[in-house]
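Quiz preparation item.
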């Protein structure tokens, strides 16, 4: 998971293999990110509170 404060998106990468990742999903800030753990439990992360930045660094 990569949270990018400049583009205000979260990139989720899964299904790793030698050449990269088999699945890449971009989620805009404000949408929840939901993980399913190996135990079957689900974890939800609220991205609406993630910090943002302008391209000029402000």
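Solution:
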């Amino acid at each position: 998971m990569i949270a990018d404060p400049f583009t205000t998106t979260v990139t989720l990468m899964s299904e790793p293999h030698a050449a990269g990742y088999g699945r890449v999903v971009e989620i805009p800030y404000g949408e929840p990110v939901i993980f399913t753990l190996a135990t079957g439990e689900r974890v939800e992360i609220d991205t609406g509170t993630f910090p943002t930045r302008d391209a000029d660094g402000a």
